[in-house]
Design a protein that fits this description.
- The structure is a single chain.
- This protein is an alpha+beta fold.
- The chain folds into 3 domains: about 25-140, no CATH class; about 145-235, Lipocalin, CATH 2.40.128; about 235-374, no CATH class.
- About 25% of the residues lie in helices and about 30% in strands.
- Strands 5-6-8-9-10-11 form a 6-stranded antiparallel β-sheet.
- β13 and β14 form a beta hairpin.
- The protein is elongated and about 65 Å long.
Length: about 375
């Protein structure tokens, strides 16, 4: 009897081992690029981190250059794109591009030189030629396949990316697939999935799913973000909404640095109006803006040019600068000569109570996920 039990146990172990061996693995998208370009360097890893984004981030550096052709790309455009990508990808500490074309345009940013690119879009790095005239995200698409499922309305409800061997292909944030829920045609919930369909937290923003709330007109009103443990996260328009409501009765200064209007909703604009701010910010992409809200009233201005304000708040001197993307991208809020602005993209807030600074917060109101820096 014991011999039979041993045989059964051996068979179970073998089945388990076979199952483990046959179970699809999760591979990173960069691994696929490495197979296509053996020996590619850190430059491509940096390009990959800028290009691969299933959330719809539009890559700027090289795709822009090839949409219009090298001759139409101005040096200041390239410098801005490099600065922009450093802002949204802080891990990219050193970015260097060398563009050369028939007109002799050459841009070198920072001290590192990773490679050169010809007019056909072929990047040469350490002797390896890499064709970037086709964006890397497209190249990854060519090396993988998307498995999709739709509901009876034709709405996409599941999507997984896999390679030729059936392995799940994770994007740079560790996400293999997505699940969507709808109210009619409107997405009410989007979830990030792992290989087995389990919820996974994105490595960049840390959320596993978000829930959308719409107004009576069907416009997106608020978005709530949660991790895989169903814990509410301090990000998104729902948190911005709560933050603005918390400012009622308080004195504060707000400035826009770079861009801070793209993801504003009617609900958030109503919150601002309740605080006494009447500038119409929706549609004012890349504008400069400031508002100084005190017990005596509100001083505010909106312009495509750099804005400066000098005055007093709580009996102290106040100097404010707001420069949107159209005007060099800069924010400064000095109270009695002390700098309090975080000077990062979005809306920079400095809040006072009883004449003392009690909070400095930036909400990236350009990014739909509205990450918060405090």
């Amino acid at each position: 009897m014991r011999k039979v039990a041993d045989i059964v146990m051996s068979v179970m172990v073998m089945v388990l081992l076979v199952t483990m061996i046959m179970k699809p693995n999760i591979v990173d998208s960069a691994v696929l690029l490495e197979k296509k370009y053996p020996g590619y360097t850190d430059w491509i890893m940096q390009a990959y981190s800028m290009y691969v984004d299933d959330e719809g981030f539009e890559p700027y550096l090289i795709t822009y250059a090839f949409k219009e052709g090298f001759g139409s790309v101005k040096p200041e455009d390239i410098r801005y794109y490099l600065r922009y990508n450093r802002n949204i990808h802080p891990e990219l500490k050193r970015i260097s591009l060398r563009f050369s074309d028939e007109t002799g345009v050459e841009i070198i940013e920072d001290s590192a030189k990773y490679g050169s690119m010809d007019e056909k879009g072929v990047l040469t790095v350490d002797g390896v030629n890499i064709d970037l005239s086709v964006p890397l995200i497209k190249q990854i698409d060519d090396l993988t396949r998307l498995e999709r499922e739709y509901d009876e309305r034709g709405n996409l409800i599941h999507q997984f990316r896999k390679d030729a061997e059936g392995n799940g292909v994770a994007d740079k944030n560790g996400v293999v697939g997505y699940k969507w829920e709808y109210d009619g045609r409107m997405i009410t919930k989007e979830s990030n999935l792992g290989m087995e369909g389990e919820l996974v937290n994105r490595s960049d923003y840390g959320y596993a799913y978000f829930v959308n709330e719409y107004d009576e007109k069907g416009n997106l009103s608020l978005t709530y973000f949660y991790n895989k443990n169903d814990e509410y996260l301090r990000m998104g328009s729902s948190y911005f909404h709560k933050f603005l409501q918390s400012l009622k009765g308080k004195e504060f200064i707000v400035t826009i640095m770079d861009e801070g209007t793209y993801s504003l909703t009617d609900t958030l604009m109503e919150d601002l109006r309740e605080l006494g701010i009447n500038s119409e910010l929706i549609g004012k992409l890349k504008y400069s803006f400031y508002a100084v809200v005190t017990k005596d009233g509100v001083a505010e201005d909106l312009s495509q040019d750099r804005l400066n304000y000098t005055g007093n708040i709580a009996g102290k001197s106040l100097e404010v600068i707001s420069s949107g993307w159209n005007a060099e991208s800069f924010s400064s809020i000095k109270i009695d000569g002390v700098e309090y602005s975080k000077n990062t993209r979005g809306m920079n807030f400095v809040v006072l109570e009883d004449g003392k600074v009690v909070q400095t917060t930036t909400i990236d109101s350009y990014e739909p996920r509205m990450p918060v820096a405090e």
